[in-house]
Each structure stands twice: as C-alpha cells, then as structure tokens.
Amino acid sequence: MEVVICSHPDHIGPIAADYVESLISTKPAAVLGVATGSSPLGLYEELGKRVAAGKLSLSRARAFMLDEYVGLPADHPERYRTFIERHFVEPTDIPSTSVFGPDGAAEDMEAACAAYEEAIHKAGGIDLQILGVGTDGHIAFNEPGSSLASRTRLKSLMEQTRKDNARFFDDDIDQVPHHCVTQGVGTILEARHLVLLASGKGKAEAIKGVVEGPVSAVCTGSALQLHPTATVIIDEEAASLLTYASYYRFAYENKPEWQRV
C-alpha cells in the first residue's frame, strides 16, 4: 500500500487528481469509481479546474457510484446521485448519462443489485476507484461485520454512521435513512487501482486500522491491504496514529521515476 501524507489537507485533492489525470492520459475512456461525502470534494474541485483549463477531459470516461440511500425521493438534496451531479458532473465535462449508480428505489432490490454488478462487469470493471472512510473504518457502506467477499446489496446503516452523516441532514439523525444500497468489499477490491482519501483527527483511528491494523471485517477498509495497487492520501492529522508514518513519507518521497504518476 502506498501512503501519501500531505502537509495540508488542501493538498489531498490535487495529488489525487494527478492519479486520475495520469489514467485518463493513457486511457481517455477509463471507468472511474466515484464516492460521496466530504473527503472527495477537493478532488472533484481540482478535476473541474483542470477540465476548465483544458488540461483534462472526462468526456469519454464513465463513472460508477459506490452507494445510494434507500427511501429518499429523487429530488432530495442529500440523495447521492444529486451529490455526484452537483460536485462531480457539473464541474467537469463527463456526460451525466455516463454516470451510473445503484437504484435505491428499486422494487426488486436483489435484481437491481445484480444488474448493477453486471453493468460494472460489462463496462470492463473499474479502473480507478475513489474511496472515503468512515470513523469506524468502513468503506462505501460496508459497515463493521460486512463480509470482505461481499457484493452489491442492501445494507442497514449503523447508529454511528447515521450520527456521522446527520451533519448533511440539518444535524437531525431522524432524517438520515436507515438503509442503503452499496457496492460490496469484494466488488470494490476488483477495481484496478484504489485511492482512499481522508483528513482530520476524526479519521486517525480509522486510518490506523486501514493501513496498519489486522485485516478484519470489523474494519472493512483494512481489506485495502489485500489489494496490489492501493493508494491512501491523507493529511498529518489523519496520519497521527500511524506507527510507520516516517517510513511512508520516505517511501513516497523517494519513489523511483518509473513509479511516479
């Protein structure tokens, strides 16, 4: 696992954008995996700047969302499809019709989840998957206890996750849905490159588990340790509990030229 420790949280987005730009430069029709929440906002803002400057085009790319709430109306401002449209589609030149998400309103949820898995497969799989991480170490909505071989499915949200997300619902946990549709850990691990973003002291314990903890269903983000190409981009506060932080800095700063994006 490559761990990039940034001196300031504002550096996370541009560094992550370098990985996306490098991929698009060699594969303009790449398939991206996009995440919601506060962690990827700097990345999406930077991608928008590069598109506006003519340095990057996502016009031929496709994107698949990680997850979606169940039970929110189509026009709800905190629906994840709305988030992706606002923060990823609008600032860039990727067509809205090239962005796909799980169906949180499906009547036959099992069939809808299977269809989403098949759509990812038919697209050739995810080339680069953007991830955030919950305070308990979960990725997407794969709460503690989720199988590391899990696929796209309906999940119940834990109380901690609903508390963490209440800030997006006027700090009212009662407005936060109890269920979601999420890609499974096994689905996520099939992406060719995983890029996880996190900042702040509130994510330090989670990052410790993801990077240095045992691989466990209790911290589903720890499954990144099993992936051949995983990059974790964090700030100093999120890195504050890492035992080998100095080594990670040395390894990143002294990467061979052929490994650099």
From TrEMBL:
Reactions listed under catalytic activity: alpha-D-glucosamine 6-phosphate + H2O = beta-D-fructose 6-phosphate + NH4(+)
Pathway: Amino-sugar metabolism; N-acetylneuraminate degradation; D-fructose 6-phosphate from N-acetylneuraminate: step 5/5
Family: Belongs to the glucosamine/galactosamine-6-phosphate isomerase family. NagB subfamily.
List of catalytic residues: 67 (proton acceptor), 136 (for ring-opening step), 138 (proton acceptor), 143 (for ring-opening step)
Ranges of residues in domain Glucosamine/galactosamine-6-phosphate isomerase: 19-215
UniProt entry tagged with the keyword Metal-binding: no
Assigned EC number: 3.5.99.6
A GO biological process held by the record: N-acetylneuraminate catabolic process
Chain's role: Catalyzes the reversible isomerization-deamination of glucosamine 6-phosphate (GlcN6P) to form fructose 6-phosphate (Fru6P) and ammonium ion.
One Pfam family in the UniProt entry: Glucosamine_iso
Name by which UniProt lists this protein: Glucosamine-6-phosphate deaminase
Keywords (A to Z) from UniProt: Carbohydrate metabolism, Hydrolase
Organism, scientific name: Corynebacterium glucuronolyticum
InterPro entries: Glc/Gal-6P_isomerase, Glucosamine6P_isomerase, Glucosamine6P_isomerase_CS, NagB/RpiA_transferase-like
Gene Ontology annotations for the cellular component aspect, listed alphabetically: cytoplasm
GO molecular function, one term: glucosamine-6-phosphate deaminase activity
